[in-house]
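Following up on my earlier message about nicotinamide-adenine-dinucleotide. Here are the inputs again, as you asked, copied directly from the submission form:
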Amino acid sequence: MTITKLGVVGTGTMGNGIAQVAGQTGLDVVAVDIEQEFLARAKEMIEKNLGRMVKKEKIGEADAEKALAQITFTTDYDALRDRELIVEAVTEKPRIKFDTFAKLDELTGAEAILASNTSTISITEIAAHTKRADKVIGMHFMNPVPMMKLVEVIHGLATSEDTHKVVDELAKRMGKAPILVNDYPGFVSNRILMPMINEAVYALMEGVAGVAEIDGVMKLGMAHPMGPLRLADLIGTDVCLAIMEVLHEGLGDSKYRPCPLLRKLVAGGYLGNKTGVGFYDYRVDPKNPTPQEF
Ligand SMILES: NC(=O)c1ccc[n+]([C@@H]2O[C@H](COP(=O)([O-])OP(=O)(O)OC[C@H]3O[C@@H](n4cnc5c(N)ncnc54)[C@H](O)[C@@H]3O)[C@@H](O)[C@H]2O)c1
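Thanks, got it. Here's what our run produced:
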């Protein structure tokens, strides 16, 4: 099966990027969120990103218009009924994911593939909330979606080889490089990345160094394009905390305990780029944010 009709559920940081790339690929895209306001923000973000690509002469103006015209933004789940594949990118909370999958399972045709962009939640457990576990798979795009090549594809216990083949082909058509991994907490990407970010927050909390110094060491010394604290802001400190909770619970090892400073930031609404403040303050100059003092 070659996918032409795609659904994207949840149009936040990741969902709008997935919808954009799918639109650029020429797929017929239905993007669903719970509030018009979130959809309007997603559309604005896509317009801005495509506009930037036109300015840099990576694509023509007509391509940008065509890509945007491929996407229907709606709060109506019914618009997903005829979708051949749906990528779920809702908030990283198990209950919300499980309910969303149960709903999509009721709504869509028996042949539709249901993919999750979850960073850590078990694909096998998500699939158990549907009657089509063989057609449930992880399709973990990276942030920012239009720029990052990797799609970590995750096989749940019951995911079929046919489902994998369809998703592999789709990811490649979207200009991505899919890599297949197994279903364990954090998969490969966040099993390795997130403990590093969490350790950077511990180093900050314990006064080993400040925000700029920690990021500076990792950038200049380890050739990371972005320091771990800046990356935490980009990902969203709430998403980072949610991932650490899943690693901690799923692997049962105290080395994965979330740093109390990370919890404090999330509790205070310091979620990073999306709220304008996290480890850095983005409100004055988003491109050159000010490191915060803790
Ligand atoms: N942020 C990252 O860097 C990153 C990277 C890879 C994967 N992910 C994963 O992608 C998923 C989405 O993360 P995000 O950072 O885009 O989150 P986000 O908070 O930016 O966006 C989530 C969106 O889902 C919507 N939503 C919530 N419940 C919904 C429902 N029932 N139906 C439809 N929409 C609903 C919200 O309104 C919001 O717009 C998560 O599973 C996350 O773990 C995030």
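One observation from looking it over: The beta strands are 5-9, 28-32, 71-74, 85-88, 113-116, 136-141, 150-155, 177-182, 280-281, 290-291. Hope that helps, and feel free to reply on this thread.
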